[in-house]
Amino acid sequence: MLADALHDINPYYYFVDVLRVVQHPATCVHELTPRLWKDRFAANPLRSDCTNWHADTITPSKHRLRSSIHFLQLGTMTTSQRISPHPFNRFSRNLLISMLTLLTLSTANADPYKEKAGAKDHPLVGRFQGSILHNYGLYSFERVNVPLSATTSEPVEGKVFNYLYITPKDKSSLEVFRNYKQSLEKNRFKILFACEDAPRCAEQGLIKNAQEWTSKPATFSGGYDSMSRFDNNGNYPPRFLAARLARPEGDVTALLTVLDPSSTQANKGAGGPYFLQIIEAGPMEIGSVKVNADALGKGLAAEGKIALYGILFDTGKAEIKAESKAQLDEMAKLLDQQKNLKVHIVGHTDNQGNLESNRALSQKRAEAITAVLIKSYKIDAKRLQSSGAASLSPVASNATETGRAKNRRVELVEQ
User: C or N terminus of the chain, fewer CB within 10 Å?
Assistant: First the structure.
């Protein structure tokens, strides 16, 4: 048992490392395990990044350990100093076992696998039955490299949903993997790439893909559930799957990485973790940043026109959305500042639909903006002219959704 394993090992090395674990587990916990079971603390010097610890500086969250180790006046130590050998008596050994037990219990109780409050499954790809949705995160727009083979991938941009699930403890990673594969195929997803043989998946480096996106700070609310937390540097190889659903409104890509149940702590009574990432392909929303009056004036002075993406409309409609007010305020401010300025307000569309309907739509949108400036901001109607250009003056290719989004705009043009 533990007491036997610790026989004839210098206890003071343990006390120093226990203090390190208490204070900075992310930095120094690796110092404890290798030396505990391999090197036996063979009078190794202290590492520079884990030095200068003192029993009185234990963090408040570990206050319950203070009484056990307060007597250790270790003082300040440098990397050149070694701790002198000391007999490992029964009291020292028992005290150390108690301290390590407290640390273990503290770690186990601090991070139970619970359902994430307020989080929901994706409407197109749900959870394996009985799983816990332990954490969840969202990017409104991000790029993800989707593996198509062990050596190739393609970038996909759009809205990204990240899910971390914990399976029931009696379910294997293979069962979870095959259930997802069958379910996705049944729901018209095309399998882009699948790796069922976990050791081979690890050899192909597929774990790196999941490590990449799960290590980003905003991946999960709380920002701590990365793949490396579970895979233990590759000791628990994954099974991996990439699938895609083709839709007129934008493709949906699903990436699944399933780890063995052994990668979670047994004392939590849980199964294995699996990471599900859903990418809804689409352009970045344009219009989140307004162009202020000063920039409007400079743009007109430099080029005679300036494109605005902060005036928003629903598809096929000419009613101005409420989110457009900030941009309208800046347009009115410019016209108030420059009393002699006269402008054309020109509506532009992409090439979806026929030219005549787009011409009419762009004209109506320009007229709606002009009407608001006259009625709500008291701008003289003689200073404003409305025009619709449809798709006749693109600023990007209409072959992609990103290009079409750039073409849907309003321009302010100096008369």
Answer: N
- In 3-state terms, the chain is what percent helix, strand and coil (to 5)? 40, 20, 40
State the CB neighbour count (10 A cutoff) for residue 309. 18
Q: Are 83 and 1 in contact (CB under 8 A)?
A: no
| Max CA pair span of the chain | 97
Separation between Cα atoms, residue 161 and residue 27, nearest integer Å: 30
> Under DSSP, is residue 306 helix (H, G, I), strand (E, B) or coil?
strand
Whole-angstrom Cα Rg for the chain: 31
pLDDT value, residue 198? 67
Question: Using an 8 Å Cβ cutoff, are 65 and 22 in contact?
Answer: yes
C-alpha distances in Å from residue 351, one per residue of 357, 361, 369, 401: 10, 12, 22, 11
Closest by Cα among 301, 306, 314 to 368: 314
Distance of CA 54 to the CA centre of its chain: 37
Other residues' Cβ atoms within 10 Å of the Cβ of residue 395? 11
Q: List, in order of start, the domains of the chain with CATH numbers.
A: 2-110 (no CATH), 132-281 (3.40.1000), 293-414 (3.30.1330.60)
Per the structure block, which two tokens stand in for 196? Answer: 């069922």
Q: What Å distances lie between residue 41 and 8, 22, 23, 246, 321, CA to CA? A: 11, 19, 20, 58, 68
Q: In the chain, which residues have pLDDT < 70? A: 1-112, 198-199, 201-237, 262-270, 284-290
| Bridge-based pairing state of the strands 153-166 and 239-245 | unpaired
Lookup: tokens for 240 = 């991996």
How is residue 410 written in tokens? 């309003």
* Whole-prediction pTM: 0.49
